[in-house]
Design goal:
The chain is an all-alpha fold and about 120 residues long. The chain has 4 helices and no strands.
Length: about 120
């Protein structure tokens, strides 16, 4: 049942996130000699997770960017009804039509890598 589903990005996920390096904390010498790497998530898993966390109608999920869900339903179905939620297929179609730039949460990962100095 939907009420038995745990929130995809619940309280524990914040403990496992990398700390953001602020510009004033940056040691340029250390960054010039640092070993850099990138970890990418499986794109399918990432889209399912993003949809469930941000857009689905599950009781314990979704609702974070409700305005985008309403926009997707309006564009894909041609219906302007704030009570409707997009299906996963509609969400994917919308991302494809907008080259994945509909919302920063759904940007392709290769467009996201940023060095702490702000350089891409």
């Amino acid at each position: 049942a939907p009420q038995d589903v745990y929130k995809v990005h619940g309280g524990l996920s914040g403990k496992n996130r990398m700390t953001y390096v602020r510009q004033f904390e940056l040691n340029v010498t250390a960054m010039e000699t640092a070993f850099s790497f990138t970890v990418l998530r499986n794109p399918w898993t990432r889209m399912v997770s993003g949809y469930r966390d941000k857009l689905s109608d599950e009781v314990t999920q979704g609702h974070d960017i409700r305005h985008l869900g309403i926009k997707i339903v309006k564009q894909i179905r041609g219906i302007d009804d704030a009570t409707l939620y997009p299906t996963f297929e509609e969400f994917l179609r919308y991302l494809v039509e907008h080259n994945g730039t509909a919302n920063p949460h759904f940007l392709p990962q290769h467009k996201n890598p940023v060095h702490p100095t702000g350089e891409v």
